[in-house]
Amino acid sequence: MEKALEHYRSLPQPKRSEHLWRYSAWRRLHPTGKVEEVPKAVSAKVVLTNLDGSAVDSAIELRPARGEERRRLSATLAEDNVAASFCRALCGDESLLLSIPNSYVGEQPLSLDITASGHISSLYLLFDIGTNAEVELAISIRGEAGWFGLLREGNIGENSKLTEFVHNRLDHTSTLLRCEGIELQRDARLLTATLSSGADKSKSDLRYSLTGMGADLGVFIAVHGQGKRHDDHHIEIEHKVGNNRSQVEMHAACDDNSRSVGTGRLLIAESAQGADAGQVFRNLLLSDKAKADVIPELEVLADDVSANHGAASAPLDPEQVFYLESRGLDKNESRDIIVEGFLMDAFKDFKSPALIDRLRTLLLVHLDCDLI
Amino acid sequence: MGKDEARDAVGDYRYGFHDPENAVIKFDKGISEQVVRDISALKNEPEWMTEIRVKAYHHYVERPMPDWGNMGLLNSIDFDAVTYFLKSSSGTAKDWDDVPEDIKNTFDRLGIPDAEQKWLGGVTAQYESEAVYHSIREDLEKQGVLFYDMDSGLREHEDIVREYFCSVIPYSDNKFSALNTAVWSGGSFIYVPKGVHVELPVQAYFRINSENMGQFERTLIIADEGSSIQYVEGCTAPTFSTDSLHSAVVELIAMKGATIRYTTIQNWSTNVYNLVTKRGVAYENATIEWIDGNIGSKLTMKYPSVILRGEGAHAEVISVAYSGEGQHQDAGSKVIHLAANTTSNVLSKSISKNGGRSSYRGLVKVSPKAHNCKINVVCDALLLDENSRSDTYPTMEVANSSCRVEHEASVSKVSGDQLFYLMSRGHSEAEAMGMIINGFFEPFTRELPMEYAVELNRLLEIEMEGAIG
């Protein structure tokens, strides 16, 4: 605890010239605004079940993590990562480990329900997926905590597949800081989808390291901004070895005074020949005061690669609205359908019918739409 | 001006003169407030200019180095080892025969004044810190076009210079614009009156010849309502210097309905630090085009910018960069949309070879009042070997819901299929590679005057030698 605290305090405070903090200053995200402070936090409540509510297989463990496990599974987030260091200091010795054994193949998706309450809440969640395993996971973040810090680190073993979605539906008065560092071993696959619609101030720093050949990563993010919501996603992917693939697809629909920020950093190391990486950021601006900022960065040090990114911002297409109105829908219904279609399009390569259905339902409920 | 005359002009100052082969005046290395005042006194400048220089100098001293970009190379610049002013000729000649022989030989090899007679509206040739030759076609002069080297522009048209100097790029903009404002010398001053179209491009040649030399030219172009001009800036001659510094500032002002096209082909030697600030302001229905080619230099940091201030204004930026061994081309563009119905197009292409590094760093910013604007940004990069590197750092800030922004970028190597196709038609691998590279840069070369396009293709061929095997 003391060590983590000391380490955090020894780090230089991030500058606004760093893209990671350009639009969401650390001082504004910090729970008290005094960046040197590490206040006391209440641990978030975590419940693990199958998606239908039944008990999970006995082979799956959710238990406090041991020191050695923490060290082994926390290699992806750099020591100088201020937000992750802060979360470690905040969580102290408390951390949970979700362990999936080798060759486990889940018959139905798991559900991890995280409830954050109190003034300041935190959770340090580690996961360790063995080799040749296949698991689907639905993570829900909810509650009315004033501030919630979630640090998630883990490893996906050789030839394992993790398909997951994270739904941020914290109360709108909350602030969310989400830090993730995940390592993919040889032939591992991670498809991770995020639906971000809760917490008026939300900052996610998601980092993935492709350390094994044949690894396959898909990051799909849908953001809905309403009111004064400020949502900032940073996605950093490092291809350390070759012949692997990554894809980022982020769609943000910004209404009212909301602002969406998407920053991506794609690093292809010199030894990562044959890497195939792409990032797409799309923004739909629904009101005059909405804002959308995008910085998709590429750093490519290998020549035999395919690396690309695209970004686009545009208003609602009046022709689409007109088409739907001509079919008898009113303006608001037409708009909701277009927003729903735009956001769900971020998940078009998310290959899990069960989770996609759940995501769509959650989105429609959020949009308060009658189309379920 | 002789050495004694120069001494008289600047008074009793501490900086002794060196007298290398062709230097009329050479300041000691390093910069201080006194150096800045001495440069101003030597040029007999008005007091307001001296004041701006001194303020800029203090800002330069106080401002830290940028904490982004290639900090390793940036921090290796020894600013105390740079000569901030070197005059090689006693004045600016209007007749080519009056240019000193050794300098003339250099520029003759570049095809001047041959090119001037054939296809240019005017020429400025700058050698080290000051212009050594300057001319403008009579018909343009009669139409009221003002084309001077910047020092003469300040002397002859102080009112215009005072109005626009530092109006687009304040000295406090960045560390290098502050440095330039403090020690600027040479560059071009152009004013195009209302409704005048300068059909032939005007051109400036810049050359650094000495070791550890700093060239800080300052260019100001004002195109009045409904006028147009094309300015070509050539740095195509390889230089023989080591660790020199080129830090220019270019300000463009395009009034209502005016068009300015600013073309650069930078081919400094690979030990020149090229840290340049270029920015234009486009008013109602005006157009500013930056056509920017970067072939040489050790480190280039250059992001030609356009502020679209008037409704219907348009910006066009086409840039190419070639990075060879030991080079880092950190180039890009910035477009700020402040008014409605403004449009911009950015096309960036880069090639990295033999361990070279190319970076695209761009900004597109749309203000809340910029309704219905359209923006398109495309960046393509080719990596020719496994030791090279390509980075893309685009930033898009959109605060208006009615605008459309599109950006795409890709990094790849030369397609094996394209090579195979050309080789199956009888071309050698090197020829095929050359054709693909020329084709890759074609959107840029087609915007150049013919002579420049030919020159650029030839340069690329030389640079690409040995790219295969």
Describe this structure in words.
The complex is a heterodimer of chains A (372) and B (469). By secondary structure, chain A is of the alpha/beta class. Chain A has one domain. In chain A, the strands form 2 sheets. In chain A, strands 1, 3, 4, 6, 8, 10, 12, 14, 16 and 18 form a 10-stranded mixed β-sheet that branches. The termini of chain A are far apart. Chain B has 2 domains: 324 residues, no CATH class; 54 residues, no CATH class. Chain B is built from 13 helices and 24 strands. In chain B, the strands form 3 sheets. In chain B, strands 5, 6, 8, 9, 11, 12, 14, 16, 17, 19, 21 and 23 form a 12-stranded mixed β-sheet that branches. A 10-stranded mixed β-sheet of chain B has the order 4-3-7-10-13-15-18-20-22-24. In chain B, α2 runs antiparallel to α3 and α8 packs across α9. The longest helix of chain B is centred in the C-terminal third of the chain and has 17 residues. The radius of gyration of chain B is 22 Å and the shape is globular. About 4% of the residues of chain B have low confidence. At the A-B interface, β18 and β19 of A face β23 and β24 of B. β18 of chain A pairs antiparallel with β23 of chain B.
Domains of chain A, number: 1
- Number of strand elements of chain B: 24
Mean pLDDT level of chain B = 83
Sequence stretches where pLDDT stays below 50 over 5 or more residues of chain A: none
Shape of chain B: globular
Rg of chain A over CA atoms, rounded to whole Å, is 20 Å
**Rg from alpha-carbon coordinates of chain B:** 22 Å
Oligomer: heterodimer
Average pLDDT reading of chain A:
93
The computed structural class of chain A is alpha/beta
Count of helix runs of chain A: 7
Strand content of chain B: 25-35%
Number of DSSP helical runs of chain B:
13
List the uncertain runs of chain B: 5-21
Order of helices and strands of chain A: HHEEEHHEEEEEEEEEEEEEEEEHHH
* Termini gap of chain A: 47 Å
Question: Major sheet of chain A, described briefly?
Answer: 10 strands, mixed
